[in-house]
Design goal:
The protein contains 29 helices and 37 strands. It is an alpha/beta fold. Keywords: 2Fe-2S, 4Fe-4S, Iron, Iron-sulfur, Metal-binding, Oxidoreductase, Repeat.
C-alpha cells in the first residue's frame, strides 16, 4: 500500500532527461557516472546520492540559479557555477564539497536568514521547512547581520484566500512561487516587484490573492520552501505525521493526491508527484475543496419513511436494508420484474458501480440499469464504437506535449479540466497552434502568453455542419492522408462517406449560413488542422449534449482518420470526461444494453459467460434508459428505483418532468452523502461514503485505472460497495466479497480489456494502468489504435447535419447554453460545502451587451429566463464572452433551477439530453420570486424540518 512518511519529496533541479540521448561520462566528488546529455550537475550528483544544498531549485520547474547555494567547483574553470543550471560535459571533474564551497554557502545562507524572522519554533512550517533544513545542511550557526524589522512582523500577511495565507515576512524571494504559476499552472498571476532588498512577491497592482488572476491551484503553496505560502489547515492544525496516496474524486483528469493526516484527521491534500495524470499538479477543487467529506450536512445514519410527506425516521442499517429490499420485492410481485431498476454513479468506484449493475441483473432479474453518463458522454461511447471500434479516447494526457495543432471543441479545459488545461497551455506557449470551436469565448481563446489561432464561434446546435465543412475542405483540396486511409480504413465505408462529404450541403459556404462563421475562416482553420503537423482533437459536453451528439462524435472520428491523426503521440480523439469515473462507470456495464466491457446483453456467448460466473439466468433484452424510467414512472409501470450517488432531480433536464416521475414512485432508495434534491422524494436514505472513506479504483478520461485508498473510516460505518452487497443479499441474491480487490478480480475475469488488472499489478506499475490491460498488453495501452482498430479497419459514417427541433422564434428569441465554472463542480453538492463559494456564490446568466441593452438589463439585475417548459430567475452578468443571440449559465446551485427550463430534446442514438440548446426569452424582473424558486424554497424548508425531527430523535425507532 502506498502510504508515506511525511517529509518534503526530494527535488533535484533539472527534470529528468528522457529519450535516446548521447551518454556523457563525468566525475563528481571522485565518483564516475554516465548520464544523458543535457543533464544538470545537480541531478547527476543526486543520482550518486549527493545532496547539494539549494533553495530555488526543484525538479518540478526549469532551473533558475538565483539562490547561489548550489555552487560547485569544476576543474579547469574559474568561479563557482550553480549546479542546477550547469549542464554536464564529457570528462568534467566536479567537486561539490570543500572548505571554500562551505564558506560561500554559509555566507549566502547568512544573508537569507538576516532578512528572516528567527521564530522557527512557533512557525507553521516548523518541521517542514526547506530554509530551516538547508541552514542546518550548510552548518549555519550564527548570523552577524540583522536586517529584519521585527516591528513589521505579520502586518502585511494576505489572508484573503480561504485556503492559504501569504506572509511576506517569511518570503526569501526565491521565485519558486512565480515560476510555478508560470511554468506549471500557466496563469502568470504572480511577479516580483522592486529590486534588491526591496524585492517582494506581488499579485499585481493593489490586489490580493483572492481578487487577483490567481486560480488557487496551490502550485505556489507546494513550491514555497518556507512558511511564506502556507495552507490555512496547517496553520490551524499543525504538521501531519503520515500520508496516504489516493485519487481525486472531481473531474475526469484523475489526479493523484497525497492525503496528509494526523491519525484519521485530514490536515492537507497535496498533488502526488508520481501521479501519471497530473505529475504533481492539482486544481483548487482537488487541492483544497475536500472539506465536504466532514461537513455537518453529511447524513451518517440510515433513514426511512413510508411517504415523502412524512418525517424521516432514523433506523439501523439492518432495518433500512431490509425495508428497502422488502419494498422492491413487493413492487415486483405486484407490477412485474421490470417495474424496478437502478441508476449508478460516475462519482463512485469501478467496484461499486459494478456491484450495482450486477445487483440489477442478478437480483432484480432485468437490465434496468443506467448511469449518469447517459446525460453527458453516452454519445462518445456510441460514436467511437461505431467508427474506431472502442468506446473510449485514444491518448494519454501527456501526449499533448507532442501536438502541433490542438482543436478544442465544446470544452473548456481551464475551467472543467484545469490540470489538463495547464498541460495544454504549456504546449501552446511552446508554439503549438490552437483552434477553438465554441459558441462562447472560453479562456483559452486568449490566455497568458498564448492565443487561439482560430476561434470559430458557431451557433449552438451546429457542430455537425462545422465538422462536415472541415472534412469537405480537406478532401476537396487534397489535404487528406491518403496512405493512412488506404492502409488503415475500410474502403467501402470510405467511398460511401466520400460521396456524401463532397456534396455542396457540406461545403464551408453552406456551413457559413448554418453556423454563422465565415466560409473563409472555416477553410483556413481546416487547412491548419490538416497541414500543421500532429493534430489532436479534445472535446467535451458541448459536442455530446446535443440532438446530434453521436453524429458529431462520429464526424470527429472521421476527421481524425482522414488526416491520419490516430495511433501516434500528440494526435487522437480525446473526450474530456466530466466526472471522475464516467469512463469507469461505462466500462463496468452500467448501460441497459451492455455487460461490462461494452458487450451486448443479447449476445448469447457473453451472456452465458456471466450466467456461469454469477450462477443465475440473465435477461437477454435491453432494459430502460433513464428517460424511459421517468416516462414509465409517470405512466405507472415503473415503481421502484435505487439511485446511487446521483442527484437526478437537479442534474437531469426538464425538472418538472423528473419531479413528476419521482413523485409517482412507490419506493425511491437514495444512497448519497447529503440529503440532495432527489432525496426529497426518497423513501429510503442510505448514507454513502466519500472517496476518502473507501478503497477501489477510478478510471479517468485517458482510460487510466488508478487506485483510491481509504484515508479514514466510513462515517456511516459502511462503504458503498458494502451497502450494495447487503441490499443484494436481502433481495435474495448472495454476494460475499471481503474487499474491493476481490470485486476487481471478478471484473478482470469477465472483462477482456481488464484481464490483467489487479490491485497488486496496479501497485507494480506505479499506482495506475491504462486499459486495455491484458496478456497482450500487460503494462497497459497509453495510445490506442497504433497498428489497427479493434474491428480491423476504421469505419467511416456519413454524418448528415439535421437541425435541432429546438428553434428560436419571436416568443423565445435567444438560445441558452450551459457549462461549468472552475471553482464549482457539477450540481455543487460537494463544492458548495467548501470555501469555493468565496468565488461562486450563485449561478449567473451571461448575456451579450446588445441583447441586454435591448431588454433594459444592466449588470447585476435580476432577470427571468423562460423557455417552453418553465421559467427561473437569476442575476445577469453582461458579458462579451457570449455572442448576440446566445445566453449562458452554470448549474451548480439548486435554487437556480437551470434544468427547470431545459427540454426533453435528446440525442437520436443515446437519449443524451440537449442541454446546450434551449430557446428562451430573458426579461428584467424585480425579485427572485419565480414559480420555481418559490417551490424550491418551500419544499427545501419542509425537508429540513423532516431532517431536524429525525436528528432530534422525535421519530427515531425504538
Amino acid at each position: 500500500m502506498l502510504e508515506t512518511v511525511l517529509r518534503r519529496e526530494q527535488d533535484f533541479g533539472t527534470p529528468a532527461i528522457t529519450g535516446n540521448l548521447k551518454e556523457v561520462s563525468l566525475q563528481i566528488d571522485g565518483q564516475t557516472i554516465q548520464v544523458p546529455e543535457g543533464t544538470s550537475i545537480m541531478r547527476a550528483a543526486s543520482m550518486l546520492g549527493l545532496a547539494i544544498p539549494k533553495l530555488c531549485a526543484t525538479d518540478s520547474l526549469e532551473p533558475f540559479g538565483s539562490c547561489r547555494l548550489c555552487l560547485v567547483q569544476i576543474e579547469g574553470r574559474r568561479g563557482y557555477p550553480a549546479s542546477c543550471t550547469t549542464l554536464v560535459e564529457e570528462g568534467m571533474v566536479v567537486t561539490t564539497e570543500n572548505k571554500r564551497l562551505a564558506d560561500l554557502r554559509r555566507n549566502v545562507m547568512e544573508l537569507y536568514i538576516s532578512e528572516h524572522p528567527l521564530d522557527c519554533l512557533t512557525c507553521s512550517a516548523n518541521g517542514d521547512c526547506e530554509l530551516q533544513d538547508t541552514a542546518g545542511q550548510v552548518g549555519l550557526r550564527q548570523v552577524r547581520f540583522d536586517g529584519y524589522d521585527k516591528t513589521q512582523a505579520n502586518k502585511s500577511a494576505d489572508t484573503s484566500n480561504p485556503y492559504f495565507t501569504f506572509n511576506p515576512d517569511l518570503c526569501i524571494v526565491c521565485n519558486r512561487c512565480v515560476r510555478s504559476c508560470e511554468e506549471t499552472q500557466g496563469t502568470f498571476a504572480l511577479t516580483v516587484d522592486g529590486r534588491g532588498f526591496e524585492s517582494q512577491i506581488s499579485t499585481g497592482l493593489n490586489t490580493n490573492f483572492k481578487d487577483s488572476d490567481c486560480v488557487s491551484c496551490g502550485a505556489c503553496v507546494t513550491a514555497c520552501p518556507t512558511g511564506a505560502l502556507m495552507d490555512n489547515s496547517i496553520i490551524t492544525m499543525g504538521q501531519p505525521n503520515h500520508a496516504v496516496i489516493t485519487t481525486c474524486a472531481y473531474c475526469g483528469v484523475g489526479c493523484g493526491l497525497k492525503a496528509e493526516l494526523k491519525g484519521e484527521e485530514l490536515v492537507r491534500m497535496t498533488p502526488w508527484k508520481n501521479g501519471k495524470a497530473n505529475e504533481g499538479h492539482a486544481c483548487v477543487k482537488g487541492r483544497f475543496a475536500w472539506g465536504y467529506a466532514t461537513h455537518p450536512d453529511r447524513i451518517t445514519t440510515p433513514m426511512i419513511r413510508a411517504s415523502i410527506n412524512e418525517p424521516w425516521r432514523k433506523v439501523s442499517w439492518e432495518e433500512a436494508i431490509n425495508y428497502a429490499a422488502g419494498e422492491i420485492k413487493r413492487i415486483q410481485a405486484k407490477y412485474g420484474k421490470n417495474s424496478v431498476g437502478a441508476i449508478s454513479s460516475s462519482r463512485c468506484s469501478n467496484e461499486e458501480v459494478y456491484l450495482v449493475q450486477k445487483t440489477v441483473r442478478a437480483a432484480l432479474g432485468n437490465n434496468n440499469i443506467d448511469t449518469c453518463a447517459r446525460v453527458c458522454h453516452s454519445p462518445t461511447g456510441f460514436g467511437l464504437k461505431q467508427t474506431l471500434g472502442e468506446s473510449a479516447g485514444t491518448q494519454t494526457f501527456e501526449s499533448v506535449a507532442d501536438s502541433d495543432v490542438i482543436l478544442v471543441m465544446g470544452a473548456n479545459p481551464t475551467d472543467a479540466h484545469p490540470v489538463f488545461g495547464s498541460r495544454l497551455k504549456k504546449r501552446l506557449r511552446q508554439g503549438a497552434k490552437l483552434i477553438v470551436i465554441d459558441p462562447r469565448t472560453i479562456s483559452l481563446v486568449s490566455t497568458a502568453h498564448a492565443r487561439a489561432d482560430f476561434h470559430l464561434p458557431l451557433k449552438p446546435g451546429t457542430n455537425v455542419a462545422m465538422l462536415n465543412a472541415f472534412a469537405h475542405t480537406i478532401i476537396s483540396e487534397g489535404l487528406q492522408d491518403k496512405a493512412f486511409i488506404a492502409g488503415r480504413c475500410d474502403s467501402d465505408t470510405f467511398k460511401e462517406w466520400l460521396e456524401f462529404i463532397l456534396l455542396d450541403e457540406n461545403s464551408p459556404e453552406s456551413a457559413a449560413t448554418i453556423t454563422g462563421v465565415p466560409a473563409q475562416t472555416i477553410r483556413a482553420a481546416a487547412r491548419l488542422f490538416a497541414t500543421g503537423g500532429k493534430a489532436a482533437i479534445y472535446y467535451g459536453l458541448g459536442v455530446t449534449e446535443h440532438s446530434q451528439g453521436s453524429t458529431a462524435v462520429m464526424a470527429i472520428a472521421n476527421l481524425a482518420m482522414i488526416t491520419g491523426n490516430i495511433g501516434l503521440s500528440g494526435v487522437g480523439v480525446n473526450p474530456l470526461r466530466g466526472q471522475n469515473n464516467v469512463q469507469g462507470s461505462c466500462d463496468m456495464g452500467s448501460f441497459p444494453h451492455e455487460f461490462p466491457g461494452y458487450r451486448h446483453v443479447s449476445d448469447t456467448a457473453t451472456r452465458s459467460q456471466f450466467e456461469q460466473a454469477w450462477e443465475v439466468k440473465l435477461d437477454a433484452n435491453p432494459g430502460l434508459r433513464i428517460p424511459n424510467m421517468f416516462n414509465a414512472a409517470i405512466s405507472g409501470s415503473f415503481k421502484g428505483l435505487y439511485c446511487q450517488g446521483e442527484d437526478i432531480l437537479q442534474s437531469d433536464p426538464n425538472t418538472q418532468h423528473v419531479e413528476a416521475a419521482l413523485a409517482n414512485l412507490e419506493c425511491l432508495i437514495v444512497q448519497d452523502l447529503f440529503l440532495n434534491e432527489t432525496a426529497k422524494f426518497a423513501h429510503v436514505f442510505l448514507p454513502g461514503a466519500s472517496f476518502l472513506e473507501k478503497d477501489g479504483t477510478f478510471t479517468n478520461a485517458e482510460r487510466r485505472i488508478s487506485r483510491i485508498r481509504k484515508v479514514m473510516r466510513p462515517k456511516s460505518g459502511m462503504a458503498d460497495w458494502e451497502i450494495t452487497q447487503a441490499l443484494s443479499n436481502a433481495l435474495g441474491y448472495p454476494m460475499q466479497y471481503e474487499s474491493p480487490s476481490e470485486i476487481m478480480d471478478e471484473i478482470a475475469r469477465l472483462t477482456p480489456t481488464f484481464a490483467s488488472v489487479s490491485y497488486a499489478h496496479i501497485e507494480e506499475l506505479g499506482g495506475s494502468v491504462q486499459w486495455p490491460c491484458n496478456p497482450q498488453n500487460p503494462e497497459g495501452t497509453p495510445i490506442m489504435h497504433i497498428d489497427s482498430f479493434p474491428h480491423g479497419k476504421g469505419t467511416f459514417v456519413p454524418t448528415k447535419y439535421i437541425p435541432t427541433d429546438e428553434r428560436t422564434n419571436k416568443r423565445f428569441p435567444l438560445i441558452l447554453t450551459t457549462g461549468r465554472i472552475l471553482t464549482q463542480y457539477n450540481v455543487g453538492a460537494q463544492t458548495r460545502r467548501t470555501g469555493n463559494t468565496a468565488w461562486h456564490e450563485e449561478d449567473l446568466l451571461e448575456i451579450h451587451p446588445h441583447d441586454a441593452s435591448d431588454r433594459g438589463i444592466e449588470d447585476g439585475d435580476i432577470v427571468q429566463i423562460a423557455s417552453r417548459v418553465g421559467q427561473i430567475a437569476m442575476k445577469a452578468k453582461v458579458s462579451t464572452r457570449v455572442q448576440p443571440g446566445v445566453v449562458y449559465t452554470t448549474f451548480h446551485h439548486p435554487v437556480s433551477g437551470s434544468n427547470v427550463i431545459t427540454t426533453d430534446n435528446a440525442d437520436w442514438a443515446t437519449s443524451c439530453p440537449e442541454y446546450k440548446v434551449t430557446a428562451v426569452q430573458v426579461s428584467k424582473v424585480e425579485s427572485y420570486a419565480s414559480e420555481w424558486q418559490t417551490h424550491w424554497l418551500i419544499d427545501d424548508k419542509k425537508q429540513h424540518e423532516f431532517l431536524t425531527s429525525a436528528e432530534q430523535g422525535t421519530h427515531e425507532h425504538a
